[in-house]
Recover the amino acids of this structure.
């Protein structure tokens, strides 16, 4: 890669390392002040290999930051009632500050019901309708980790986002919609595109900021971009690699063609993914401070 192109890379991996270091410092202060470690409970139902990788990674990083990790691995046959009972137990557990139920859940479980059962004060994923509502009206609450990580990288790279044109591709409750809310709160002019959007390339062409959260490998092409645009690639897609039987990870953006046109871009892997986990740890620590009634120093995280 040329030096000019290398300087366009937004290094989510190293950004995440920095955030985790601040989390670790605040976690050790929390322990000194409260007399226990902050704790994150992660619930995984079933054997999806990708989910297992993320859950293992979350557990390791939680412990590395000086927090307690409680992992609950349940078989795919777990009933909705059993899952709701576990969530109720975690809600009541004083050692648990944050609860994450890994999605997707098996088809026989109503995801919305499970999310609704999590105490909004422990909902470090920010998926509970109470936290979605708080984000929508501008009240403090928990913001979903992936879009918050994207926003942190954007602000770090661009400074003020005031007045910029932002296009978010995707309108899911966990990425697209909260991303749009965050950008709106930063005074961007926000367009949310989705599968019914007409002439997506023309919509993307207007954008100073493009956030792609679609789940379609390499869909967004460099030719769609306004020269100099900042591109955040949320997509995590496993596709067949050149070597027989192997796979590789690609984003929702065609990285090679986008790199030539963009002003800045996140790679996959090493972009949004690592930030998502670091923000989860950050949210857990914020939850711990709030739930313990201790004030976290401003700008500590
Ligand atoms: N890095 C990370 O930490 C995370 C990464 N991801 C990744 O981000 C991606 C998106 O995830 P998620 O939001 O959960 O996905 P969803 O499947 O819930 O949402 C995808 C969105 O993309 C839209 N879409 C689908 N096809 C097109 C198209 N051809 N043109 C325009 N829009 C389209 C859909 O539109 P419609 O609503 O009309 O169907 C939908 O709104 C995935 O690759 C996922 O793996 C997700 C979470 C965390
Ligand atoms: N309740 C819930 N909360 C989530 O936040 C949640 C979820 N469910 N279900 C699945 C998605 C996906 N997700 C990722 C986290 C980290 C990486 C990550 O670290 N990716 C590495 C690569 C990892 C690899 O090689 O597979 C990277 O992009 O560099 C990716 C994806 C969180 N999600």
């Amino acid at each position: 890669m040329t030096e000019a192109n290398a300087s366009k890379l937004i290094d989510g991996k190293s950004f995440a390392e920095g955030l985790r270091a601040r989390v670790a410092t605040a976690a050790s202060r929390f322990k000194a002040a409260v007399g226990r470690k902050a704790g994150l409970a992660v619930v995984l139902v079933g054997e999806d290999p990708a989910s297992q990788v993320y859950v293992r990674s979350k557990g390791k990083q939680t412990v590395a930051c000086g927090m307690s990790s409680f992992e609950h691995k349940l078989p795919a046959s777990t009933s909705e009632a059993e899952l709701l009972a576990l969530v109720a137990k975690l809600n009541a557990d004083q050692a648990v500050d944050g609860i994450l139920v890994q999605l997707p859940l098996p088809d026989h479980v109503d995801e919305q019901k499970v999310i609704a059962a999590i105490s909004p004060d422990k909902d470090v994923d920010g998926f509970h309708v109470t936290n979605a509502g708080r984000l929508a009206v501008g009240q403090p609450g928990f913001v979903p980790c992936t879009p918050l990580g994207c926003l942190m990288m954007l602000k770090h790279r661009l400074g003020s986002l005031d007045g910029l044109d932002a296009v978010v591709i995707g309108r899911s409750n966990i990425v697209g919609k909260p991303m749009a809310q965050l950008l709106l709160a930063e005074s961007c002019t926000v367009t949310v595109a989705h599968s019914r959007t007409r002439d997506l390339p023309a919509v993307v062409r207007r954008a100073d900021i493009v956030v792609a959260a679609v789940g379609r490998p390499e869909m967004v092409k460099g030719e769609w971009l306004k020269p100099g645009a900042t591109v955040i690639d949320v997509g995590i897609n496993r596709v067949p690699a050149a070597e027989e039987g192997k796979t590789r990870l690609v984003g929702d953006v065609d990285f090679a063609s986008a790199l030539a046109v963009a002003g800045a871009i996140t790679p996959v892997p090493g972009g949004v993914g690592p930030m998502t986990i670091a923000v989860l740890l950050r949210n857990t620590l914020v939850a711990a401070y709030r739930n313990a009634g201790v004030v976290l120093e401003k700008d500590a995280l």
Q: What stands out?
A: The beta strands are 39-45, 68-74, 98-101, 165-169, 189-193, 209-212, 230-233, 237-240, 247-250, 264-265. The domain at 145-273 is CATH 3.40.50.720 (Rossmann fold).
